[in-house]
Amino acid sequence: MRRPRMTALPACGPSSDGDCCRPAVQRAYRELLAKGEPDRYCYEAAMTVYRWHHPETPPESADSIVTAWVAATDTRH
Q: What is the model's pLDDT at position 73?
């Protein structure tokens, strides 16, 4: 049986406003957190999703963006 061929999703691109992948970034973080994964693993997964979509973003900027996005996702007190 042949497996379907996996293709990469296109990145948002430098012309996007940056919010195109926000739902995916937040979902990665939120779903791993809900499974009891450590915060650091959840953050790293969210960062990986962001960097996939925005490889052109400098690491420091990507860190700031993802940190803000996951902070808005994390509802624990």
A: 73
